[in-house]
Amino acid sequence: MPQQTGFFPPRSVSGRAALLPEPPWHYSGDLLTIEYRVDPHRIRELLPEPLGLAEEDPGAVAFIWADWQSCATDKAQLLDPVRGQYKEAFVVVRCSFEGQTFSRCVYIWVDSDFAIARGLHQGYPKKLGAIHMTRPHPYGPAPRVAPGGQFGASLAASDRRLAEAVVTLTEEVPSNGFVNGHPMAHNRFVRDIQDPSVMRLDEIISTSSASFEAGPAFAADIDHFALLPAPTEELDLLAPEEFIGGYYRQVGVTWNGGQLLHDNLGGTNA
Amino acid sequence: MPQQTGFFPPRSVSGRAALLPEPPWHYSGDLLTIEYRVDPHRIRELLPEPLGLAEEDPGAVAFIWADWQSCATDKAQLLDPVRGQYKEAFVVVRCSFEGQTFSRCVYIWVDSDFAIARGLHQGYPKKLGAIHMTRPHPYGPAPRVAPGGQFGASLAASDRRLAEAVVTLTEEVPSNGFVNGHPMAHNRFVRDIQDPSVMRLDEIISTSSASFEAGPAFAADIDHFALLPAPTEELDLLAPEEFIGGYYRQVGVTWNGGQLLHDNLGGTNA
Amino acid sequence: MPQQTGFFPPRSVSGRAALLPEPPWHYSGDLLTIEYRVDPHRIRELLPEPLGLAEEDPGAVAFIWADWQSCATDKAQLLDPVRGQYKEAFVVVRCSFEGQTFSRCVYIWVDSDFAIARGLHQGYPKKLGAIHMTRPHPYGPAPRVAPGGQFGASLAASDRRLAEAVVTLTEEVPSNGFVNGHPMAHNRFVRDIQDPSVMRLDEIISTSSASFEAGPAFAADIDHFALLPAPTEELDLLAPEEFIGGYYRQVGVTWNGGQLLHDNLGGTNA
Amino acid sequence: MPQQTGFFPPRSVSGRAALLPEPPWHYSGDLLTIEYRVDPHRIRELLPEPLGLAEEDPGAVAFIWADWQSCATDKAQLLDPVRGQYKEAFVVVRCSFEGQTFSRCVYIWVDSDFAIARGLHQGYPKKLGAIHMTRPHPYGPAPRVAPGGQFGASLAASDRRLAEAVVTLTEEVPSNGFVNGHPMAHNRFVRDIQDPSVMRLDEIISTSSASFEAGPAFAADIDHFALLPAPTEELDLLAPEEFIGGYYRQVGVTWNGGQLLHDNLGGTNA
């Protein structure tokens, strides 16, 4: 009797058709970050029980654009790049759970199906979007990753522009922000097919990078940043009241799973 | 303490940003179907326990292209059509569970994120693809839905063509095939975030249309049908050994949930 | 010595790789039209010498969305629909030349390369855009082409929404507007490669349909119409001051060339 | 009387809506090149009179993938990157005209409308395609621009894969090939709107870079290279008979016009 394999649907005997290969997943990418503050009430609204606001700087938000190349262990996706390259734009806030501070992605758009599928496993609330970022380059008019380098970025979904930014790098700094620096606390849920008000799975998980390397972080002046309204989005509710700073950094990351934080159907660490 | 709402992530107080509105979901669309037979072993490989082969004609397959306009109850997606139109191409086989015959979608590609998300709720193993279908039209060179009308269709993913067909309608017939005519038996599973070899949810559900209306079904000659190889697909394992028939039909469908058939973690009808 | 053939680049011995097949080109499609008036000065600005404003109703504008299936004589593009289907949104005004009234497309967006190439031959100033239109359908929630049918449409380019409309059909009328009803007067120009302020070709041509068939035209209430600003567009300069009417019609059209109206480098009918 | 401006249609008083800004155009990009030989007859077929085969190595071909960021003088397109980034894949051969050797692009695919429009001015026979290239990155699994770095690339059009390559960098070399190293000799033509067998413009132009800077060129082993058939392409007629070499290089380029080589309607240097 043949056994089905595959990390994610569709499954088959060989597992070859699965939308996702098995972790670990490896990433090379550039991060353009805008950190700012909103009324903490805006963040509180996006935190389901039992998560609460972070104790320090509870209104801090990071809006991040990322340009990724990703692959599984055999690197096949790197060499057939339509299967491994993607871009994303996402909003990270912080929250507390049982006295610990976590980061949490509240909105995220990507431009590939495999990135959506990874997000389902990892608890990211992904939608498809159109994301563009200026890329650094050593020759010609494109910017270098160095003071004076100017980078733009945009996000659209459903043919509406949702966010855009322009930043100018100023100087090296120890890190590219603090809002996205904690382990992530993310919800995963599946509704009952008969009574969708009932959850078949409802849990909070935590995930972090399994390994991380990076170039120097650069602070950046925020020349332009706008969050634009759309009928099916609520990004504009998170419009900045006060800017913290802009950042740019090139990183290499490996992701390889996480831990269950809370089973909303049955208690912590069920 | 604000409560989060939204049928699907991302959730918020208003639920406005959710990728999916609540069911029921309503659809208008055209279906181009190619039915054929393969060695039943090819189908057996795609059926996880406790599903088995259908008793009659166990090697029958339906390859279906569909061009949909879809919406929730308020029809908002119809009038902002980037949010409601999508196309799909999918492969349906039949299976048996506890003596009853079910249809089962084993591969499916769509061209929107909301269609992927619906598929996650409904147990369809969706990927993104590029799908094109000739559309009927009453004037000019495009075909009518009538004998002699000729329709083409194609499917690609990751910049590779995976399937293509051309059919010519011949005569009205009672139905547009039998392979996709049963309730669907689909798996839904979520892997543990710490040990992904463990399932947190693993179930078989059944779903059907809540309502259905349709125009006449037309039989069609199959002028061309090809399933093409790709490094991350296994469609070509389902290449036809014998054709059953081609079909075209315009339909209106409502979907509104289903039933749990089997909890693989805990027994039937848990 | 082999001869190169092909209606449009790239050319080759067989001509098979040419982006365009030879005319005549045949079209089946649906047209959603919004007619309105602006200050005639706004239109005057878009008419190069020797074109002038139309004598009657010189401020009339038609904004048209069209959903096309197109093909050459052998219909190959209909049956491999990725090569023949496209959508467009365009703005038509009227003008006069030597005492005759012409229609003139001043802005147009399409979603395929072959449509851009046809536009170069025909003098349409095409850009790529993302265009969506509600499609009529006989079953389910989508509208019928009949009184009460409600249709939406949108246009975006460079990830910014540029235009959107919603109309509700009311009653049959003799035609779907008058602004796009004349032969087209379009400019074609090619700049010198050494001194681009010099034109190598600069002419005004006229083209019409070679044949035309259509279903009933329907008048429509304009429930919503918006032209939105963008840094590289000037659509918002053509915002309506007064609406004339909305229309919907299904048509079949053949295009097969036109006439030279004026050679700007050397006189009329050179 | 208002004057229309704009380098390319659509034109307006401000010129703001034009699809192209005025040259010079500036580019930063990466080039992955595969050079090889075919039967010179295959190249002869693609050279219109009065161009002839190059005297030395007349069967040499370069297949090049390029990942570009481009802008006009004000760099606006760099900071709204959806308006300036694009990728292309193209085939270059060599030819002779009046005793001088030129390069000539015989097939090219790009993924933006502004790149198509530039190509019309420059005489490149552009179509839309889907192009992907591995990008170098200093961290994580993506390759460095250094010996051992492995890069993949693909091209598709009309949902069919047309070309793919994988190369591994081996050592620094003086240049990234010779086939694309001459001034380009390109045809530009516009057909008469009434009698399309008559040309209104038909000329051969030559263009080169106005300035050029570059990093080290790297030779590369060709791990994989395939040209695939498609019903509307003739790339497979240029399948390699013998490989010359693979190359990778990062460059900065400015383009600012060229010269008329030959007016096919009226003689050389008309």
Quick rundown:
Four copies of one chain form a homotetramer. The first copy, chain A, is mostly beta strands and 270 residues long. Chain A has helices at 40-44, 76-79, 113-122; strands spanning 25-37, 52-53, 60-71, 85-97, 100-110, 126-128, 130-133, 150-157, 160-173, 184-191, 199-214, 217-227, 242-263.
Topology, please?
4 copies of one chain form a homotetramer.
Chain A lengths: L24 E13 L2 H5 L7 E2 L6 E12 L4 H4 L5 E13 L2 E11 L2 H10 L3 E3 L1 E4 L16 E8 L2 E14 L10 E8 L7 E16 L2 E11 L14 E22 L7
Parallel strand pairs in A: 5-6
Antiparallel strand pairs in A: 1-3, 1-13, 2-4, 3-4, 4-5, 7-8, 8-9, 9-12, 10-11, 11-13, 12-13
Strand content of chain A: over 45%
Reading the helices and strands of chain A in chain order gives: EHEEHEEHEEEEEEEE
**Percent range for helical residues of chain A?**
under 10%
Quick one: which chains have the greatest interface?
A: A-B, 63 and 63 residues
How far apart the termini of chain A lie comes to 33 Å
**Radius of gyration of chain A from the CA trace?**
19 Å
State the assembly state of the protein chains: homotetramer
The beta-strand count of chain A equals 13
Low-confidence segments of chain A: none
- Looking at the structure, what is the overall shape of chain A? globular
Structural class of chain A: mainly beta
The DSSP helix count of chain A reads 3
How many strands, which pairing sense, and closed or not: the largest β-sheet of chain A? 13 strands, mixed
Kindly state the mean pLDDT of chain A as a whole number? Answer: 96
